[in-house]
Design goal:
Length: about 150
């Protein structure tokens, strides 16, 4: 699956929360009309519009499996994250990866990284406190999330 970034100083203004009781991320307000979701581990990235723009993050992510690591969110620019290709709207969801990526957390900064925190690429903040890193081959490297509150780890 390929992704593109458009640096346009436009960010989705949504609140990212982590529901401790459900071990899940969610976005407020939620989006009603969607094309499809792309799935990273069990996290859904919701795409809308004809250009498959990612506007929402939600789904299960057990914090009991998070690995503590002093990793830093990459330098990023505000913009739009898009799924490239002709994926059919209304089909449901498409998987980004065949196997689950590891999940890291920096308890000092509050950032959670799903994927490889060391691998470089182009970083875009597509929603408040949601950063995607895409490599030069347009492939997904990592998703960085900073919810309003983390569970005690």
């Amino acid at each position: 699956m390929k992704f593109s970034i458009e640096y346009n100083n436009t960010v989705e203004h949504r609140k990212l929360i982590f529901d401790i009781a459900e071990s899940s991320f969610d976005t407020e307000p939620t989006v009603g009309e969607i094309n499809f979701d792309v799935v990273l581990n069990k996290i859904n990235l919701t795409a809308i519009d004809d250009d498959n723009k990612i506007v929402q993050v939600w789904g299960f992510c057990s914090y009991k499996e998070w690995i503590k690591l002093n990793c830093a969110v990459p330098e990023r620019t505000i913009g739009t994250l898009k799924v490239v290709g002709n994926l059919k709207p209304g089909v449901g969801s498409y998987s980004i990866n065949k196997e689950d990526f590891p999940v890291f957390v920096n308890v000092q900064t509050g950032w959670v990284c799903i994927g490889n925190p060391e691998k470089k690429g182009n970083a875009v903040e597509f929603m408040n406190n949601c950063v995607a890193v895409i490599d030069d081959n347009m492939e997904f490297v990592s998703l960085w999330l900073k919810p309003e509150k983390l569970p005690d780890i």
